[in-house]
Request: fold
Amino acid sequence: MSKTAIITGATAGIGEATAIEFAKLGYNLILTGRRKERLQKLQSELESKYRTSVSVHAFDIQVKAEVENFCRHEIGDKTIDILVNNAGLASGLSPLHEGDVDDWEKMIDTNVKGLLYITREIAPRMVAQQSGHIINVGSIAGIEVYPNGNVYCATKHAVHAISEGLRRELYDKGIRVTNIAPGLVETEFSIVRFHGDEKRASNVYDGMEALTANDIADCIAFAATRPKHVNIAEMLVLPTNQGSATQVKRKSQP
Ligand code: NAP
Reply:
C-alpha cells in the first residue's frame, strides 16, 4: 500500500521539489502552504503526471487554530507515514539592535511555533501507529550563527533542538526523526528575506553555484527511503563552494 506524506510549505522551493520527488516515488501526498492557487496547480500536475493521490490545504501555519483544524478535521484518520516540516522563512538581515520585531515574530511563529503546532498533532498518531518519520528542514543556521542572522539562527537552532528532543523521545516507538540542514539553496527564500527585493536576493547567489531545491528534495527522499531500521538523524548539505555559514567562494574572488 502507498505511504502518505504531509509536506508543509509545498507552494515553492524545497517543499515543492520534495512533493514532486515523493510523487515520483508513489507516495500519497497531503500538501500545505498559504498560496492556494499554487497548491491547486501542483496538485493537478502531480495527479496527472504521476497518478498519485494529492490533497491540498491552504492555511497559515502560524495560526494554531488553523493547524488544528487541518489536522483534526481535514485529513481524516488515515495513517500518516511521513511529516516533512519544511514551511519556514527568514525575514530581514540586520543586527539585533536594529532588528524589526515584526520580522522576528514572523520567523518565530512560523519556524518554531508552526512546526510545533503541527508536530503536536501528528506525532501522537505516529506513536499510536508505532511507526512514522518526522523530517525537519533545519539549516546550517541551526548549527552556526552568522552576523545579522540572529533571530533566524535562533529559530533554526530551535528546530535542531526540537529534532534532537523528538529523537530521544520517539526512538523506542518505531519513529524516525531527521534534521536536514541545508546551506545556500537558490529558492524564493532570499526574496522573502529581503521583503521582495529581487536584486538584493540575487546577490546572495552571485558568482557561486548554490544548491537547488531538487538537491535538498533528493536528500529528503534519501532519508525517507532508507530501510526501516535506518534513521538518518542529521544531514548538513552545502554547496561545494560553501565552507561554512559565512565562507562562500565566488567566481570574482581570486
Ligand atoms: P521558499 O521557496 O520561500 O519556500 C518557503 C515555503 O514555506 C513556501 O511554500 C511558503 O508557502 C511556506 N511558508 C512560509 N510561511 C508560511 C506560513 N506562515 N504558513 C504556511 N506556509 C508557509 O523557501 P525554501 O528555501 O524552499 O525554504 C524551505 C525551508 O528551507 C525553510 O524552512 C527554510 O528556512 C529552509 N532553508 C532554506 C535555505 C535556503 O537557502 N533556501 C537554507 C537552509 C534552510 P506560502 O508562502 O504559500 O505560505
